[in-house]
Design a protein that fits this description.
With 303 residues, the protein is an alpha+beta fold. The chain has a domain at 2-66 and 137-205. It is built from six helices and ten strands, in the order ααβββββββααααβββ. It has helices spanning 2-32, 39-64, 136-166, 175-208, 212-226, 241-249; strands spanning 84-86, 95-96, 101-102, 108-110, 115-117, 122-124, 129-131, 279-282, 289-293, 298-301. Helix 1 packs across helix 4 and helix 2 runs antiparallel to helix 3. The relative contact order is 0.14.
């Protein structure tokens, strides 16, 4: 049931994207330009369709790309300079009882996907998939192209409205055109508001090299710092804005808007050399506990 519900949600999402993208061109822009091809019309619609194409490409990659699965028989390298996570009582590495396997740093178990996901950010119902190590870059690009395409769309539709109002009447008024103008505003404006707010948060996470789960953990840790229960802490994966973006989108800025394979293998991550001690408080919906980094680079986890 869950699998089919997820596919229905993906179908509805694609339908919404297609309606906004193509109904505006067929029923508003095309009549506005007299239903004739022209250089001006192609100049207007060319960039918009390019944005829509990139949007759909990255969305489909979010849906189809495996976010990253822990390899069978993977075990942490206790000699690694990248650090490893251990439980404070036993001193043993993190272990997922459900998957019966060790968990690499930043990996979490997803109840919906029923497996551990590398660098798990969240499970997204809109793509019917987890957002993790291998598809987080696609997700960031998808949000970016949704924002830009929707702003472009609303700008063009608004230009059409104001051009008609500026003459004191609708240019070649059409009941169908008016209906689709209203429908496009009703569908596109809420998308801009909702996805725009979501994008701001994830662009911030990208710049901080943080996942949604780690963001929750940092917020809870900050609350404990204010209450005086723990000492001031630092997040170990924040390498600086540029390095943080490179760790997700790759080293070539010219390719940041193009789907690419993320650097690394999702099993280990660079950390700042002066991170001090970091404590994480996982939410109860994931394999909860308190995490910390000691001087030796061990990440301590309470079950």
């Amino acid at each position: 049931m869950g699998r089919w519900l997820g596919r229905i949600v993906v179908g509805l999402t694609l339908s919404l994207i297609s309606f906004i993208a193509y109904s505006s061109q067929i029923f508003i822009i095309w009549p506005w330009y007299g239903r004739e091809l022209s250089v001006e019309l192609m100049t207007l619609l060319g960039p918009f369709n390019l944005l829509v194409g990139m949007l759909l490409w990255n969305y489909w990659l979010c849906v189809l790309t495996d976010p990253g699965q822990v390899p069978k028989d993977w075990q942490p390298d206790v000699q690694s300079e990248h650090g490893y996570e251990v439980k404070p009582l036993t001193g043993t590495p993190r272990y997922c009882r459900t998957c019966q396997s060790y968990k690499p740093p930043r990996a979490h178990h997803c109840k919906q996907c029923k497996r551990c996901v590398l660098r798990m950010d969240h499970h997204c119902p809109w793509v019917n998939n987890c957002i993790g190590f291998a598809n987080y870059g696609h997700f960031i690009r998808f949000l970016f192209f949704v924002d830009v395409a929707c702003i472009y769309h609303v700008t063009v539709i608004t230009r059409r409205v104001f051009e008609g109002m500026g003459r004191g009447y609708w240019d070649e008024p059409s009941g169908v055109e008016l209906i689709f103008i209203v429908l496009n505003y009703v569908t596109c404006v809420p998308v801009i508001c909702a996805v725009g707010a979501f994008s701001i948060y994830h662009f911030y996470c990208l710049l901080a090299n943080s996942t949604t789960i780690e963001g929750w953990e940092k917020d809870k840790a900050a609350t404990l710092v204010r209450r005086g229960k723990i000492q001031e802490i630092k997040f170990p994966y924040d390498l600086g804005y540029k390095s943080n973006v490179v760790s997700v989108l790759g080293s070539n800025p010219l390719l940041w808007c193009c789907p690419t394979v993320p650097p690394g293998n999702g099993l280990k991550y660079d950390m700042t050399t002066d991170y001090g001690e970091w404590m994480e408080l996982q939410s109860s919906s994931h394999a909860g506990g308190v995490h910390g980094f000691g001087a030796a680079g061990k990440r301590i986890v309470e079950p």
